[in-house]
Amino acid sequence: MASSGTDFPKAVWRTSSYTNGDGGDCVEVADDLPGIVPVRDSKRRGGPVVVLSAAAWGGFVAGLKSQ
């Protein structure tokens, strides 16, 4: 499901620790919303947001950690 960055006005966004000083090529997630994890491009904070279920996000992170 995709939405706009403005659809989550109370979200607390967290930038990946891998983001460089100028915010290039990384994502931000809002992990304070029950059952969903909105994800957006750190360079386009008002742009599109992909919304994943918490279970899908957990599987994605687990897959990354296993690499």
Provide tags for this entry:
globular; 33% strand; five-stranded antiparallel β-sheet; 1 helix; alpha+beta; 67 residues; 18% helix; single chain
Q: What does the model show?
A:
The chain is 18% helix and 33% strand. The chain has one helix and five strands. The chain has one helix at 54-65, and strands at 2-4, 13-15, 27-30, 36-41, 48-53. The chain starts with a strand and ends with a helix. Strands 1-5-4-3-2 form a five-stranded antiparallel beta sheet. With 67 residues, the protein is an alpha+beta fold. The mean pLDDT is 82. The protein is globular and about 30 Å long.
Low-pLDDT residue intervals, each spanning 5 or more residues: none
Helix content range: 10-25%
Rg to the nearest angstrom?
12 Å
Structural class by SSE content: alpha+beta
List the helices and strands and how they pair.
Elements: E1 2-4, E2 13-15, E3 27-30, E4 36-41, E5 48-53, H1 54-65
Antiparallel strand pairs: 1-5, 2-3, 3-4, 4-5
Give a short summary of the structure:
This protein is α+β, with helices and mostly antiparallel strands. 18% of the residues lie in helices and 33% in strands.
